[in-house]
Amino acid sequence: MGAEMMGEGTLMLNMVNISQVETGARVTKGTLTVMGEAMISGTTMGLKVEGGSANVMGGKIEGTTVGAEVSGDGVLKVMGEAMIMVTGRNGTGLKVTGSGSATMMGGSIQGSGGVGSYGVKVDTSGTVTLMNVEVSRFETGVYVKKGVFKMTEGSITGNGAGSYGVRVGDGDVKLSEVEISKGVLLKIRVSYIFYGKVLQYNIRTSNVVF
Predict the structure, then answer these.
(1) Number of structural domains found in the chain
(2) Distance CA 44, CA 128 (A)
(3) In angstroms, what CA-CA distances link 168 with 18, 123, 140?
(4) What are phi and psi of 165, to 5 degrees?
(5) How many alpha carbons fall within 13 Å on the CB side of residue 57?
(6) Residue 22 belongs to what domain range?
(7) Is the pTM of this model over 0.85?
(8) Which CATH number does the domain housing residue 93 bear?
(9) Nearest by Cα to 161 from 178, 143, 175, 181
(10) Residue 133 to residues 38, 184, 202: CA-CA distances in angstroms?
């Protein structure tokens, strides 16, 4: 374990480099704040928020299996030019489960493009919101199994033919001014088979197969 926040108060990481640990940083209570050009890297997971909250304002969060995971009633807020990255070929960039919620404004979520990889996986009773975020190099850009997913502006760039931009199970999705490109299949229409609900979509497409 690199850094762990388990009590009341705030732990601030500014311009630090954490690596060669299984989990770069973990929050179960209180608030973790990551600032500056920090590098939080784990051999399995970059950042795990099980409770409390984490505020990431710049820097890089990196894991082999999962870049950042929010579970329980955890809250994640990512701002600025922060990057969430997963290096494993079938990894997940941002994963939100339980009743957790996540908001990301600016920055990017990047993968290595392997089979079974996900940019954002939503399986929560909460809400996940992306604003002007670039999601790239995943087999599935966004998968909403349960919960609410909102994305405004930004882009989802696939890894070539056969990859999916957005897949919806039993969830609600709202896309506004989102660009989906590079051979991505926009898998919105199957949401109705899985009883999902697409609230709204307003997208720009480039080289997309429907």
Answers:
(1) 1
(2) 22
(3) 35, 11, 11
(4) -80, -60
(5) 8
(6) 3-206
(7) yes
(8) 2.160.20
(9) 181
(10) 19, 17, 16
Least confident of 10-19, 58-67, 166-175: 166-175
Helix (H, G, I), strand (E, B) or coil at 64: coil
The H or E element that residue 3 is part of is strand 3-5
Residue with tokens 């908001």: 103
Q: In b/e form, how buried is each residue of 167-192, taking b as 16+ CB within 10 angstroms?
A: bbbebbbbbeebbbbbbbbbbbeebe
Residue 162 contacts residue 141 (beta carbons within 8 Å): no
The rounded radius of gyration (Å) of the Cα atoms in the chain is 16
75: which 2 tokens? 């809250």
Q: What is the pLDDT of residue 59?
A: 95
Asked whether the CA dihedral 129, 108, 59, 86 is positive or negative, the reply is positive
Q: Cα–Cα distance between 54 and 56 in angstroms, integer?
A: 6
Average pLDDT over residues 63-75: 98
Contact 210, 187 (CB under 8 A): no
- Distance, in Å, from the CA atom of 89 to the CA atom of 127, rounded to the nearest integer, reads 26
pLDDT in tens, 158-170: 776 667 888 888 8
Give the SS3 label for residue 117.
coil
